[in-house]
Structure formats: C-alpha cells, structure tokens
Amino acid sequence: MVMKSSGEEDDAGWGLGIPEKMKNNANWVDITHDFKSSCKELSLGELLHDMLFGLFEAMSAIEMMDPKMDAGMIGNQVNRKVLNFEQAIKEHAIKVKDLSLPELIGIMDTCFCCLITWLEGHSLAQTVFTCLYVHNPDLIEEPALKAFALGILKICDIAREKVNKAAVFEEEDFQAMTYGFRMANNVTDLRVTGMLKDVEDELQRKVKSTRSRQGEQRNPEVELEHQQYLALFNRIKFTRLLLTALIAFTKKETSSVGEAQKLVAQAADLLSAIHSSVQHGIQSQNDTTKGDHPIMMGFEPLVNQRLLPPTFPRYAKIIKREDMVAYFGKLIERIKTVCDVINTTNLHGILDFFCEFSEQSPCVLSRSLLQTTFLIDNKKVFGTHLMQDMIKDALRYFVSPPVLSYKCCLFNNHQAKDYIDSFVTHCSRPFCSLIQIHGHNRARQRDKLGHILEEFATLQDEAEKVDAALHSLLIKYEPQRQHLACLGTWILYHNLRIMIQYLLSGFELELYSMHEYYYVYWYLSEFLYAWLMSTLSRADASQMAEERILEEQVKGRSSKKSKKKKKVRPLSKEITMSQAYQNMCAGMYKTMVALDMDGKVHKPQFELDSEQVRYKHRFAPFNSVVTPPPVHYIQFKEMSDLKKYNPAPGSADLYLAASKHFQQAKFILENVPSPDPEVNGILRVAKPNFVVTKLLAGGHKKETMV
Amino acid sequence: MSVTNTSGGKPQKKNAQMATIEENGPSTHAREKLQRLLNKNMRIRMTDGRTLVGLFLCTDRDCNIILGSAQEFLKSKDTFSQGEPRVLGLAMIPGHHVVSIEAEADILDDTQAFGVNH
C-alpha cells in the first residue's frame, strides 16, 4: 500500500485554497491508491453507495470536466490570468486615465453590445459586468469613461426595475439576478445625467475646435481626430438620451411619456452617425487560436465565472457591433410605439393595441415599459383613470347598457348602481390580468390565456345574474325597455376573443400537426367565429335599441335632429372581419378534409393516443367555460359527419366549397373601406387560396402534396 | 452519521446493490472498506488542478465518484478569488479525472478501513 502523508505537497499545492476551518480540523490522508484498488474489486456496472442514495439521486449530479456542465472548468483552461478590476489596475493591465480616443470608442461600443445581450436574456454577470470599468466607476479617472460607466449602470438599473415591476418575463426572457453588483446606487440619476452632459459639452468644444475652417489646408490627422471626437460625442449623447428617456418612464405623469418619446427620437437620430463611426474604435485582440474568447482591454469574460451557478451556459455570445446599432434602432422604434399607447383611451382600443404590439414579438424591455405605462403602480390607467371607469366606458361603447346611460332611470338608482359597481369592480382584476398576459412572450401567452378563461367563466356567470337583476329593476320603472344579456354579451365577446386567440396562437407556435388542422379550423369556423358574429350583432342590436330610445326622447323635446344622418356602426368593422375570418377558416377546414380524402395528409399510426385524445387536449381549456359550451369530440364527429349529406360530397365538391369560402372572404375584405395591414394580409392569403382550391376542384395536379 | 452496515435485516427490495455485495464473497473486504467511507468528507484533486471537497456518496469500478455538497477550490496560484470555495452541490468526478483522493485522518482511525501510517 502506498500511502502518502498529507505532507509537503499539499501545503505547497492546494493547502492555500482551503479555508481556515477546513485547514484546522482536517488532517487529510491520501488514500488514492487504496481507494482505486478497492474500486477495481467492484464488478462491472456495480454501484457502491449508501442506502439513501440511489441511481435517481446520482442522475442529478453535475459531471465535472464536462464542458457542457462544468462552469468552473473553463477558467482553468484559459492560459491567461483572470484579473478583477483592482488587480488589473495594479498590474497596469487596464488604463483608468489617458485613454486614447479609439480605446474609448471601442470600450463604449462593446459596452453597448453587452447591454443588448443582457436585454436579450443573458445574465448580467456574463454581459455588462464583463466590463471591468463598471465594477467600480469611482476608480476611473478619465471623466468621459466614468460618466459613461455610471450611465450604463443606471440604464441597467432602471431597465431591471421596470422589467421586475411589470412582471411579464420568464426565465427565458430575462435574468433579473444582479449578483450583488453595485448599480451606481450611491449616485443620483440627476448627477449621472449631469456628468454625461458636462462630458458632452466638453466634447462638443473639442469637436468644434477641430472642425475644418474655410480655406484652411486640412491636416488629415486633425480630420481623424475630429471624426473621433465626434464619434465619442455621439456615443455619450446617446447614452444620456437613453438614460433620460428611461428616467422619464419612471415618472408618474402621462406627460413624461411624451417627453420620453421625444428623447428616444433624438437618440434614434444619432444612430446612423454611431454606425458609421464603429470602425474608429479599437477591436478586440483576436487571439482565438485556442478557442479563446476575443479579449478587449477593460473586458474580462471570465471575471464573474465563479459567481455563476454550478451549471450555466458557458459564454454568452455578445452581439456584434454592427448589429448593435440596428438593434438599438429597433428598440427605439418599439419604445416610440409604446409611447403611443397613451393616445388610446378606450379599453378595447388598448386591448387591441396590446395584441398588435405583441404580434411583433417585442423585447422584454419594451413589453415591460408598455405594461408600466398602462398601469402606473398597478392602480390607475396611465396614472389618471380608474380601471373601473375604463370598463364602464368600454361597456357603453360596446353594448350601451341602459344602466350606464345618463338618460335611464337606473342611472341614479342606488341599488342598480351597487349592482353595476360591484360587477365592474370584479371585472377590473381579470381585465388587468388579460392585459398583462399580452405582455408575456408569445409562447407563455398561450398558456396563460388558457388559464384566464376560468376567471372569465366566473365573470360570465356574474354578468348574467346582474343582467337579470337589473332587468327586473328596469321593467318596474320603464316597462318598454329591456336589460337583457347586456353585460353577458360583453363578457361573452371577450371570452370568445380569448378562445380564438388561444387556438390561433397554436398555429403561430406551430403546435398542431397537419392532421389536426381540420378540427381546429372546424372549431374556429363553425363554432367560435359563428358565436362571435352573433355576439357582435347582439351587441349591435342592443346599441341600436338604446339609440332609438334616446332619439325618441330627444325628439320629444325638439325634432331638430335629422334622421338622415346615418352613423357608421362602431362594431361593423369587427363584424365584417369576423365574417371574413370565418370564411377563411371554413375554407381551410374544407380544404383539409378534402386533402385528407385524397390521402394527402400524413396521419400517424396512433398507438398511445388517438385523435380523440388529441382533440380533447387541444380544447381542454375551453372546458371551464359555460357559454359557449365546449364541443366534445363525439359531438364534433356527429356534426362534421359528411354522410349526413346525400349524396356525400367528394373531395372535388369540397374543394369547390372551399374556394367559394375563400372567394367570399376575398369579397368581404375587398369591400372594407380604408383597409389596414391586417386586412391586406388576409387578402394576400385569400387570393392564392381561392385560386389553388379552384384548381384542385378542377382535378389539377391531384398527385402533389401541398 | 453512522457507517452503513451491510448486515441483514434491511428490506430486500430497497437496495439491490447491497444484495450483490453480500453475495460476492471473495472481495467483500474491499467493499467494506469503501462502505465505511460513505458519507465521510473526501477531498479529490482533479486533472485540471481543482480540488473538490464533499461527502463521498457513490463510486463504481471505474472510480467515478459522486460527492455531495461539494465545494470547489481553485488551484492556489493565478486566481484572484483565492480561498473562496464555489458551491457545486452534487458533483460526479469521472474516474479518469481523479488525480488523488484524501480522507480525514480521524475517520480513518475510527473505521480502521485503510491502513494509515502517520
């Protein structure tokens, strides 16, 4: 047995790495040889372990020296010293004063890239804090760099606060961990913007002094210097504008949103100048021969490696400088769009705004800004309106319920008031959540939409009860008026919208297999859109009834108002759109059935599941909804059975029917006055679909697969 | 923590491995030695110079070792975070990366598993 005592080698070697506690009480004895030879005695595949420790537990162990799992390994493989900021200064590996202009430009651009990479969901430790300068801006003597470092920290801090507050992120969107870094909390926002402004003014003087004068012979060196000063000036100004805009978002007044919009617009103007001057900055020393990360002065990708959890993706891939400007451009565009939300006053309009904004899959920062702009500190919409009032307005706009009409006796009836107020109060939370859901990323939205249906089902129930109570109150006072299914219609409308959105998002996220399309389209066309249309027309009718009553009352007093003035029905657009969508879906449904008949749809051999299981799973969230009642698989099979037609249609008939649907959709959409991008988008789909199904009906190319 | 006893009286199904150990007559001595080290602190140096300290939980013929509540210590030189361990939790060290294994002396005294001459 070869036994080494825990002698010299240890103390010289790894003794230093062991903390005091360990060192004191432990008298380590080397048992390597004995241990290994004992292991050899075990049989192949045998595990020696404690009773309480089994294979299951063993599975969750991280594997050391595995490049995918062992985050600590990488630091040891790099052949350079990993220094922190203080050490780097001591070893003169990093400059804190007299930095050249190209150095400053390069550092700032890399910082911007890190900032963006962080916003795209990487951890702070692997992005912004790979820049040593931001670890402790107090140590920087160069004023421009110091102000910049503080500015970046402040931007990070505000962005993080916003994202946290909005709470519309999941781990795949954003890493909120700060690892105990100091985010320049010892300096006020105002002080930082002041410092940036001072640096900016100073640089502007330099830019002016190096500017070419008329008739003067240009010295190329001076010209280059001028360019570089200008580049630096633009970067500092951009940082300041971005920071100031974010600060504006933290204020409670709505006016500050407009201010923020102006600021980001100014920042956007600087981007092209920044883009054209990227090459002035120093590049990283590309020593990538050994798979090493490119190293920039002031940056150390491994400085925080020890802070990361045991298993963590190795390197965050920092985006390229060229892409950085484009990303900022898009970010600013998104922020500008966000600012527009305050111009929408109607709840339905706001909801549409959120849906539309979310369709471009925006970044987590802009999503969060939108959320925090909408509900400031979770109390009032845009900081001024009560959510309850918004809901009442939405109700008036949608169904004009008598109870909310100034001309109705119920308006001042305190009992009716109690009813409607408590209903509206109960509505406000689900509607806030609905809006919040639209702030999440697309994949999470679907999941959350499925869950919120439960809350809306409860609301539906309450709405019907309140409707009934109000109706019985109303007929006591004004027997000619009705209060039937007003609130119920409104909730039903939202219910249907959520359900449709839920199903459609499955297409967007590519969740359905081809052979599932037909029942999803069936559900949409035959069921949801049909319900939506009838709901909308009910709301429309109720509006008209209300208007008629108002008109009569007005006429009673003065018959001045001309009856000729025909107002555009506020809901007509939506009714038209749902008709178009219904036709599109019906067309798709029939096409899918026909394709299936021709054996063009690949169907899997169901072993563990069946179509019924899949169907049930696809529409599972709808089970919590009472109206519209969920359609079960058996019902669906009965309703969609082609045998009930006599004679049963063949695929050609179905193609023809589908083409008619597409034609109808096309017709409806072409008659929409002032078509928006949405209309044009569906039109672009409807036209070729119409042509293709027509061809298919004519037996063209029967053998090909679409 | 008591050393796991391999004698009978345990539910049979609970641990199939234990049964095999008892059955394999000739090399039980080696197994017993390893058994006594279970749940004891162990210090393992790896081929890249790092040291892991943690509770010995599991091993096999190829000397792959699983340590529980493991802490990672870097080699002493060329690192700024000297002495600060990083908590790894459950960690498996592949046998071919194990350079040396150490156990605490007093445990070895108690268990008499490995001949210690110090």
Automatic annotation (TrEMBL), chain A:
Pfam families recorded for this chain? Mak10 (PF04112), TPR_NAA35 (PF25789)
Q: Which domain of life is it from?
A: Eukaryota
**What are the NAA35-like TPR repeats domain coordinates in residue numbering?**
337-703
What organism, scientifically named, is this protein from? Hippocampus comes
Family statement: Belongs to the MAK10 family.
Query: Any idea what this protein is called?
Result: N-alpha-acetyltransferase 35, NatC auxiliary subunit
Gene Ontology cellular component annotations, sorted alphabetically: NatC complex
| Chain ranges of the NAA35-like N-terminal domain | 45-137, 144-188
Automatic annotation (TrEMBL), chain B:
Span of domain Sm: 29-107
Quote a single Gene Ontology cellular component term: NatC complex
> Please, which domain of life does this record's source organism belong to?
Eukaryota
Q: Where is this region: Disordered?
A: 1-30
Against SUPFAM superfamilies, the record matches this protein to: Sm-like ribonucleoproteins (SSF50182)
Q: Which GO terms describe its molecular function?
A: RNA binding
Q: In what ranges is there compositional bias, type Polar residues? A: 1-18
Alphabetized Gene3D superfamilies for the sequence: 2.30.30.100
Similarity annotation: Belongs to the snRNP Sm proteins family.
Mind telling me what this protein is named?
N-alpha-acetyltransferase 38, NatC auxiliary subunit
Please tell me the species this chain comes from. Answer: Hippocampus comes (Tiger tail seahorse)
